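Form 7-S
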Amino acid sequence: MALVTTTEMFKKAYDGGYAIGAFNVNNMEIVQGITEAAREEKAPLILQVSKGARAYANHTYLVKLVEAAVIECPEIPIALHLDHGPDFETCKSCIDGGFTSVMIDASSKPFAENIEITKKVVEYAHDHGVVVEAELGALAGIEDDVKVSAEESHYTHPEEVEEFVSKAENQEDFPALVHRAIAYAKAAELPVTPPREKASANPLRTVDSFGRSIRRSTAQMRTLDLSTEENKAAARKKLETCLANLEELRRTVEALKATLEE
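Output:
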């Protein structure tokens, strides 16, 4: 079996209700250990390579190690993925060099620029049958050269996900290539209306979640320059989200009050 893309891999996982492990590798021992364990479990596998790993171990060596794993473990599907590609050039190099999946992480850029960079990567990847993952939001922490402080971190906003896809999917078959960008956008917020059974199961946690979501949205609206139509439209979207969350928060508080009075 040759290296595969994650498209069919994810479809089977969604249908089967299971997760797929994605592991970062940078030497022979790690590749061997992970793939042999996956073979024992008969589990599909994503082997990830970061920018730092490519600099440390050399792109060609890493690709050949993974190709060797495919030869040694032909019974399990294996995808080779670029983790947190910093720019188009890095993604292009990996696509040209045999990767079956790449991530373009332009989340540090302004939202519109993130869309344009991602679209450029998707267009090139599409021509080579490669899947693309993109990123919205930023989690605090350090990963290779990416350093995000707690103050700079922010969650992915559901309304931005919809806009991100709608503005980037001019390309035919785009959704099949960028499904990971949305399904795995980091730290996505709770839906505006969470399942009722979950809200009633832990109303205190739900109240806290809605409260934090409302505070984030109002803080972001205060920083918007409302002199442009684009920012006014963004503010209206955030206001609608706040109002929906406020209504759901009211209902949850009433349910909590009733529970406490029982």
